[in-house]
Structures are given as C-alpha cells and as structure tokens.
Amino acid sequence: MSTPSIHVANLRHAYSGGVVALEGIGFDVAAGERVGLVGPNGAGKTTLFLCLAGVLSVPRGVVRMADLDPSDPAQRRQLPAKVGIVFQNSDDQIFNSTVREDVAFGPLNLGLPVDEVRRRVAEALEAVGLRGLEERVPFHLSGGEKRRVALAGVLAMRPDILLLDEPSMHLDPRGRRELMQLINGLPVTQIIASHDLELILQTCTRSLVIDRGRIVADGPARQVLADAGLMEKHGLEVPYSLR
After folding, report:
1. At what angle do helices 114-127 and 143-155 cross, to 10 degrees?
2. How far apart are CA 31 and CA 67, in angstroms?
3. Which end is more exposed in the chain, N or C (fewer Cβ atoms within 10 Å of the end residue's Cβ)?
4. CA dist list (Å): 134 to 20, 118, 152
5. With b meaning 16 or more CB within 10 Å and e meaning fewer, what string describes 65-83?
6. Mean pLDDT of 184-211
7. CA atoms within 13 Å, Cβ hemisphere of 229
8. CA 228/CA 184 separation, integer angstroms
C-alpha cells in the first residue's frame, strides 16, 4: 500500500490548565482523498487542524503530513510549502494592504522568482473568482470575499494537503456552489471541517465524526451522515437530502 498523505496515531492534546481537547485520535488519509470532519461546537475540529498544521505542538512520531513530522522543528518549517490551512475566521490570516499582496505573501516567502509569484497569484485569484480585485483592501471586502482571499493565499502555495475549516461560512448560495466546484476540482488531499453537511456530501466520499476530542465514527460519508442515531447522539442532524 502507498504511504498515506496524512497519518495520525493516538494523538492527544491538552491546553494549559489541563483541559484535554483531543484524546486517542487516529486515522489515515490517502493521497487525493477528500474527507469531511464533522462534529458539534467544541468537539476538537479546529484543535485537530492546528495540530496537523504544526501550529500546536505534537509528540514525536504521532503525526505525519506529506511525509513530514510536525514535531521535528526542521520538518515543521517545511510544512507551509506542503500543507495549507484556511482558518474559520478569515481575519486571522489576512493582514496585507491589498488582495494581491496578501495572496503573494506565501509564495514570496518560499523564495520564488517574481514572475512565478505573479503567475501563481493570478491563477489563485482566477480559481476563487476574485480576478479584478487585486488592488482592493482586504478588510473592505465582504465576509465571503475574505474567505476567497484566504483560500487564494493558500492555493498560491500549491500545497499537497488542504485543511479547510468551515469554508462555506459567509458565502452566498452562488459562492457556495462555486466553492464546491473548486473543491471537487482540486487534485490534492483535503480534510474539510464543516457544519454544512450538504457541502460535505457534495465534496467528500468519507466522513469522520468527532465529539469531545475523540473520533466516534469513520466511514462512507453518505452512510455515516444518514445514521440518525449517530447524528442525534453527537449533536448533529441528518442532512435534508438524506432524510
């Protein structure tokens, strides 16, 4: 079998004060697979993403992302070129004075030639439907447009793995449809954390259910999300299209 793109084995994370956010987390994600991560508020979804992206520390040998171990400082420095994360709050990752500068920030920090950076910025903005807004001030954009800028900044890095935290938040119906088309067209490994279970059904073949820091279900998305007992037990609802 090929090496999984994402490997997690018995991951535990506790915040200061002893609050355990993750306990015994383990799963593999194959290269190119799209996996939905669902669960109630406070279940540990965002904490898991921060561990996978190397933002929060993890024990040695517990996590591998694109064959990199985030616990190793040298390998963790390589993660931004391999793993892209779009945070739930877009303002957390938008900080430049124009859309162009914000999307270019990551590629410039990879040391890429200016022409290559320009090409990547243009392609990323085209992909998210923001072509023509290059000189706009990001903080003057709508919530949905900010989401697109954040995603464009990640796409410009051309990562092997994407971690998307509530990607459809603040998007209108057309923006949401376009987002699903974009997600389905990206040939990279993806984990999508969302309360939008219809989006999960339209983009992911597999779903993980997390609650109180533990994975409580892992299987085909349509089968997992159609389980009314499972959904109710963990603070979720069966998507309307599966009722």
Report:
1. 140
2. 11
3. N
4. 42, 11, 11
5. bbebbbbeeebbebbbbbb
6. 95
7. 0
8. 27
- The label of the residue with tokens 């931004």 reads 80
Hunting for tokens 């949401």 — which residue is that? 176
Q: Is residue 16 exposed (0-12), middle (13-18) or buried (19+ Cβ within 10 Å)?
A: exposed
The class level of CATH for 1-82+161-243 reads alpha beta
What residue spans in the chain does CATH classification 3.40.50.300 cover?
A: 1-82+161-243
Distance of CA 33 to the CA centre of its chain: 13
Instruction: Express each pLDDT in 45-69 by its tens digit.
Output: 999 999 999 999 999 999 999 999 9
Q: pLDDT band at residue 78, thresholds of 50, 70 and 90? A: very high
Tens of pLDDT, residue by residue over 156-179, are 999 999 999 999 888 889 888 888
Q: Which two tokens stand for residue 38?
A: 């669902």
Residue that is written with structure tokens 């898991």 in the block? 48
